[in-house]
Amino acid sequence: MTYTGPIVDAHHHVWRRDDLEWLSGAPVPRIFGPYEPIRRDYLIDEYVADATGAGITESVYVQTNWPLPRVLDEVRWLADVHAASGWPTAVIGAANLFEPAARILRAQASLSPLLRGTRHQLHWHERPEFRFAARPDALLDPVLARNLAVVEELGWLFELQVFPAQMADAATLVAAFPGLTFVLVHAGMLIPGEDEAWRAGMSRLAEQPNVVVKLTGQGTFVHRVDPGLLRLVTDTVLELFGPERAMFGTNFPIEKLWTTMPTLVDAWRAALAGLPAEQQRWIFAENARRVYRLTD
């Protein structure tokens, strides 16, 4: 049965082009390829139009790589956006977690009750155009660990973005913080042809009960909505993590480079249609409400 209930988008962005150097300046390599069509404002009104047309009723904004000196401005802006529109429902901020960040993290928490966590993109790949982190072993940096202790103290979660080759180190990091929820972005970022390494890494992470997986971003490397890929990722995630540890998100407007919101949401509905109705509701709504404390 195809899911028809309310949907929580657990991963999306909005932005003003001039706030982001990677949009307003010269194009830079990104894991999702060329991005000229989204080098423009993508404001909350456009997102809400996209989202509500596809059945989305709540959403989680994820940071968009504002310049690090301006991460407090990002939080202030999202607070103003929410006050004016009621969207997003929750916010994931950013900070430089490879230098002492306690002051910044606590300041963000004091600025807005919407904050639920932070993301520092840690993904590193042998292909330079896929790299964001400065080095492949960044997950083992003791400064990162000290900052994650602050994240846990704040009652937040950490958005974990890594490639399969980094998942052994990621599992070590996660195990060191059993009281901190780690949300694995884009289901571990499977690149076609790296299926075996991806499954092995996902199996390692699934052993840690404090890891939750986002079913997001599967157009990143193929630049289309691929039903076969969605089914592969869905089946593997549900086998290893179970339906209580998976949640849906759109990754808009990145995925807007190759699809529309209704097309994307319908493809995920089809991928999950074989599950019992209750489990579909968990993945499309209830898990995100629990993980991001959307009822707080």
TrEMBL record:
Protein name listed in UniProt: Amidohydrolase family protein
Superkingdom, taxonomy of origin: Bacteria
InterPro entries with a match to the protein in the record: Amidohydro-rel (IPR006680), Metal_Hydrolase (IPR032466), Metallo-dep_Lactonases (IPR052350)
Family: Belongs to the metallo-dependent hydrolases superfamily.
Pfam family, one: Amidohydro_2
Record domain Amidohydrolase-related: where: 8-294
TM segment ranges: none
